[in-house]
Design a protein that fits this description.
alpha/beta, Rossmann fold, seven-stranded parallel beta sheet, two-stranded parallel sheet, 13 strands, about 40% helix, globular, binds uridine-diphosphate-N-acetylglucosamine
Length: about 350
Amino acid sequence: MSVKKQILVTGGTGYIGSHTVVELLAAGYEPIIVDNLSNSSAKIIDQIEKITGVVPVFHHLDLCDEKATRDFIDNHPAISGVIHFAAFKAVGESVAEPLKYYKNNFYSLTNLLTACAERPVNFVFSSSCTVYGQPNHLPVAEDAPVQPAESPYGNTKQVAEEILRDTAKVSKNLNIISLRYFNPVGAHASALIGELPLGIPQNLVPFITQTAIGKRESLTVFGDDYNTPDGSCIRDYIHVVDLAKAHVASLRALELNKISNYEVFNIGTGKGSSVLEVIKAFERVSGEKLNYTIGSRRPGDIEQIWGEVKKAEQILGWKAELGLEDMMRSAWAWEEYLVEHPIV
Ligand code: UD1
């Protein structure tokens, strides 16, 4: 009987983490979730069980606690891979409270790397296309220059990538992939897990679905005077299930020694969609008329970005399969599910 590989998933009850746990189980891994539940609910464990029939192992742990993190890793000698999602991620909050972001996102990362240093570990990190700022060339490829960060949140992603690269360089044990996500949206096809924004959503798709369901009065489109075909900003939206699968593909590539040391990969569809196109796609698949107005630009927004995604296809053997309508349909089904089954 083959023994399942144990994979530590930090932040495994969060939005991308929970979808990745489901895909890890489907791929025959044994995920072990740690989370401090600062921005997620333990009820997600039950939801994962409803989808997979498996109750994933869960430990309530704050990775900022160095000793607890070291003890946890020492007590789990079979963990061979780590997918590190646990981090704060709200751009606006990071501007208001930079130290909260620097402390949380760096202590957790460095504690985890230190605890793992003594054994061979395949490590996957959640980075962001935010490191590119507004690129000069589109689609933007992995070798494009990293631009000065617009926010402490963005800076934590840039510096974390440097910490990982420098650590992998001198470590005999750690091989590391950073995945630069474009804009993750959508929900699991079962509608049992999805994004759970705290308070008023800052991101486009949860704001759309909350407006359509009646939780918000109206969506404001942040600017229609950009230099794009319809004047609204363009992003590369990626279905969270495709994104979750990219983590499994990354682990596999590390296990097969396709990557030594450190590599970064763009994880997107390679296709840009404007805010107005996203709204239209939502209206098409939901049959709802969305209440929205055109407002002024949001400070800090870039005009347009989409990714060059060939590297992930060539080396990880991964590419996105789901389109914008799948993203909107699943996001809407999740919002409707929450009406009957609130998760707090
Ligand atoms: C934002 C963050 C980015 C982070 C990502 C995580 C900023 C400036 N950037 O990306 O660093 O990695 O979230 O998911 O916050 N929009 C509206 N009305 C709304 C909300 C959004 O028109 O109510 C527009 C925005 O102007 C943007 C697009 O929708 O053009 C997507 O916005 P959002 O979902 O917030 O993602 P990003 O800004 O791309």
